[in-house]
Design a protein that fits this description.
six-stranded mixed β-sheet; 21% strand
Length: 361
Amino acid sequence: MNQPRQKIWNFHGGIHPPENKAQSLQGGIAPASLPERLVLPLNQHIGNPAEVTVKPGDKVLKGQKIAEATGLVSAPVHAPTSGTITGIEDHTIAHPSGLAAPCIILRPDGQEQWIERQSRETYRQQQPEELLNLIREAGIIGMGGAGFPSAVKLNPTHKINTLIINAAECEPYITADDALIRERAADILRGIDILAYILGEPADILIGIEDNKPEAITALGAAIAENAVESAIEVVVIPTKYPSGGEKQLIQILTGQEVPSGQLPSELGIVCQNVGSTHAIYRAICQGEPLLSRITTVSGKACSAPGNFEVLIGTPVAHLLAQAGFEETHCQRLIMGGPMMGFTLNNPKAPVIKTTNCLLA
């Protein structure tokens, strides 16, 4: 671990809303139960929707690609578990419009039969281009925001001097990244090392995390001390303020640089990656797993058992809410995402998708 950063910067404005994070951090990450069916939208990301490669009646294995990326800015879709494709149809999706969109419907068989997986623990012996292709084929996107395909972001045209891992998680209620770091810090460090190798070993590798996450900060420090990764990684603790987790705001806090309007961070030699996406990249490279599940916070006054759940992509929101003790009579509004950047979800039959970091009820 390199020398602590002596200076951080500030950005104009910002607020300090009530955090409401403790409610969902009373226990560890719980596995969400398997629903009767999974609903898998073809467009869970920025860019072109994926193209279906299966048909109704097909038997599929866990991790099998069921929709192919179309074009550079796109992402494939994989079967989150083994089962049978029962339909390819329009279905209500997780979108502010409440409209339906093309989805693949999968009925799980409960067998959890995997495709053949290949681990690449010795990833530094691979060419960076090979790793980028694996990340692309794994369907990994930005899991903390807009869902931009990670392989595109990790293949910039400019030299990268600074890699930032966004662990700020500044929005009230949301604790998915906090819980992930507490339990899987060592895996996240491996993911960071993979990113650093792909990006040509940036001089600065910074994990930006707000000071309201002491357990996660401790877990990162312990993992850095115990794990032998080649990259020199620095944990930078920043003051808690919304919206410190915005990409441009976090870049300014950690580097003092402002990303001009209309420009990308990579033009300043900076790449910023969400901690959840970083963990997914570790699993894709070192365990051979495409993006099939994510950590989602479920909280709010209508949930008697709030918490963080590892949930399969495509799980109906209603199914996950039930596991958190959802009481419909106490629910004034169902929100996907946080109270600041989330949107009202009018139909709980909509599925959890790759970017679903929180459900509030």
